[in-house]
What does this fold into?
Amino acid sequence: MVYRLTQGMLEETFEHFRRCGRGREECQALWVGSWDTPDTISRVVHPKHVAQHGGFVLDDEWLNTFWIELGNTNSGIRVQVHTHPHEAFHSAVDDEFPIIHKAGFLSLVIPNFATGPVGFKDAYLTEIQQDGRWRQVEIASRLVLT
Amino acid sequence: MLDKTCCPSSEEALEHLRKAEYDLEQARRKEQEAQKEIGEAEAEIKKAIDEIEHPRVFKVEVLYDGIKKQFEVRVEETVKHLLDQAIRAFGQLPQPHTLSLYKDGKELADNQTIKEVGVKPCDVLLLRPSTVKGGA
It folds into this structure.
């Protein structure tokens, strides 16, 4: 599926990364959309988490609350987005512990703690396959900025 | 000499007494049977109330990525049984070993039964990863 999101949402995502990660720690954002319009990302969620230079872990209690909120708002997570200190890629930890385990789910990695220009330059997008493995996909084939 | 019609003989009185004693015995037997039936009926009522309050088969909902699906569970089934059902229903999710069911913020142990973990009719259980993390 090709997801549509606004330039403003991408900017908001970078703002979260820069403010929270301060160029020193990894950070995550979630792109969420209504199940009524599955191809449209409608908001950016900044999860409660603990982070360090080379990783982050989501808060367990926050995750429970967020899960219920998704049900109450008929929404789903379309893409998880997180930063890396340097190069963007999907690590073994990224592969093993995503927030959604569904074929077609996307994970976008932004390099250099998102301190570069807002956009997809040097970013890495990967998708869960039917067999559970991740496979890199062209960003333009899955994400369209509107 | 006493008139027999106004003063019954002792034989007649004894007969009357035996009849009365027999009637009393019958009545007591009926009372015992009635008490037994009352006890049985009360036990049935208690059992019926218990079944209403603690049914053995009931429906719950499982929530994953904003979507709820309904499942019928039996109290003696394990959490793992429901977990496997839910994983299949949500599209044979890959890496099922990383997923668990949660109730009231607590992760449910896979090897315990629905009854042991306190799942009740109409509960909404969360199907979610036990841990979400990333790292370069």
Remarks:
- The mean pLDDT of chain A is 96.
- The beta strands of chain A are 3-5, 28-34, 43-45, 49-52, 55-58, 75-83, 106-110, 124-128, 134-136, 143-145.
- The two ends of chain A are 16 Å apart (CA to CA).
